[in-house]
Design a protein that fits this description.
Shape: globular
Number of strands: 4
Distance between the termini: 53 Å
Strand order of the largest sheet: 1-2
Low-confidence stretches: none
Number of domains: 1
Structural class: alpha+beta
Strand content: 5-15%
CATH topology: Nucleotidyltransferase, domain 5
Order of helices and strands: EEHEHEHHHH
Mean pLDDT: 89
Radius of gyration: 18 Å
CATH class: Alpha Beta
CATH architecture: 2-Layer Sandwich
Oligomer: single chain
Number of helices: 6
CATH superfamily: Ribonuclease H-like superfamily/Ribonuclease H
């Protein structure tokens, strides 16, 4: 089973996702269509991927172009290009699947597919609305977005940054 997801790097929120038995271009286009159904305007948005064959398909690239989304591709063999989403995938595996079902049960595929899907859907909701993130000042992605509706990091006063007023 494969999870394809889109993370907002501003607040770490998982904006859209799709789950499938195949890691193919349909999974990727379904994820983008899920995002398109939720977003007001995607024109000029940048969507990064690892450049795998699913993300290079004509259908996927055509959909991005149609929606006005700019495509960003990582360099082959440079794992740091995808660090944010890979970290999120690790959190989902560890905190959602392994904690709930046990690592060996997940790895041996002993959990019914519907239970896995339900657990992931529930965890994503929890992750976006409740789970605190250190880099967001221990706010959840949803709380951080609510406090910063313009989508930019708040400017901290010099004292809050640990600086003197005259520095």
């Amino acid at each position: 089973m494969y999870l394809n997801s889109i993370e907002d790097l501003f607040n770490g929120e998982l904006l859209a996702y799709a789950i499938s038995d195949s890691a193919d271009s349909q999974l990727c286009t379904d994820t983008v269509l899920s995002l398109a159904g939720k977003a007001k305007d995607l024109i000029g948005a940048i969507l990064h991927s690892d450049g795998g064959s699913s993300h290079m398909s004509y259908a996927y690239r055509g959909l991005l172009e149609h929606l006005g989304i700019r495509m960003s591709l990582g360099k082959t063999g440079i794992c740091y290009d995808n660090a944010a989403i890979e970290s999120l995938n690790g959190i989902i595996k560890t905190e959602c699947l392994y904690c709930r079902f046990g690592k060996s049960n997940v790895k041996n595929r002993e959990i019914p597919k519907l239970e896995i899907i339900q657990a992931v859907v529930e965890f994503i909701e929890f992750y976006n609305t409740t789970r605190p993130k250190e880099r967001l000042g221990f706010l959840s992605p949803g709380e951080f977005k609510h406090r910063n509706p313009m989508g930019t990091y708040p400017v901290l006063a010099p004292k809050e940054r640990g600086l003197e007023e005259n520095s």
